[in-house]
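User: Sequence recovery, please. Input:
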């Protein structure tokens, strides 16, 4: 009887930990951003996967925009070729601790003004503190979790976390169309 109780207790603890895992990871990200702890941030965010996923989103959006707007232009292929370099520059803004903080805060990392960066950081910290109240969450499967963060214009950024063993990590940011078109 004692062994059954112990096993039941351990199973309940494990299920509770797995269920709370995404929230613990998001809280860890919030704390890492507030304390500028890049080591902790890199443990909670799979930067290579995030970078690749955002690159694919921007490349697809730019290619389709170039093809539709430049279909009659002979320089369309050249514009599409240069779009990869432009996407790399955009990634340098998005896939950084500051860019990730902006996305989690519902802001566009490309619209930041250099002269008001301190004001933006204070605003972001307040928005990160309100992250739980301004977002919606969903378990998509036992190893996939999403959080939708409302942006400055009402559009939502979807943050995808995946479980690897007992650890949850951010693997993707699904950006709204209006952000991709800028």
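Assistant: Recovered sequence (182 residues):
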């Amino acid at each position: 009887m004692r062994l059954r109780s112990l096993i039941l207790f351990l199973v309940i603890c494990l299920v509770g930990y797995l269920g709370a895992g995404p929230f613990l990871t998001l809280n860890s990200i919030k704390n890492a951003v507030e304390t500028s702890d890049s080591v902790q941030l890199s443990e909670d965010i799979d930067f290579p996967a995030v970078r690749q996923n955002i690159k694919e989103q921007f490349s697809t959006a730019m290619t389709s925009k170039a093809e539709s707007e430049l279909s009659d232009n002979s320089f369309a292929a050249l514009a599409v070729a240069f779009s990869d370099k432009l996407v790399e520059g955009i990634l340098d803004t998005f896939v950084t601790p500051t860019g990730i903080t902006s996305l989690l805060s519902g802001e566009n990392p490309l619209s930041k003004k250099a002269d008001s960066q301190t004001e933006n950081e204070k605003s972001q910290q307040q928005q990160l503190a309100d992250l739980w109240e301004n977002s919606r969450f969903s378990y998509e499967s036992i190893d996939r979790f999403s959080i939708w963060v409302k942006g400055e214009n009402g559009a939502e950024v979807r943050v995808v976390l995946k479980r690897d063993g007992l650890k949850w990590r951010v693997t993707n940011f699904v950006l709204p169309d209006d952000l991709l078109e800028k």
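Strands lie at 135-141, 144-150, 156-164, 167-174.
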